[in-house]
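> run fold Dipicolinate synthase
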Amino acid sequence: LMRLMATKNIYFVPFGQDAPEKKPNSMVARMELLEDTVLEALQGKQLQPVVVEKFRYMN
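> ok
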């Protein structure tokens, strides 16, 4: 993952842990930020922050 993050012209949708206590190795993308990520990527920029604090999707 870190190799990809350091690669030019590869952009990530911000992501974070959704349940660190139950799933310590699980990371989930913040898909509501997909459009903003694409718009930034078209300008050659990575939307920040890439790694976000713990969050939960609401159903």
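The mean pLDDT is 90.
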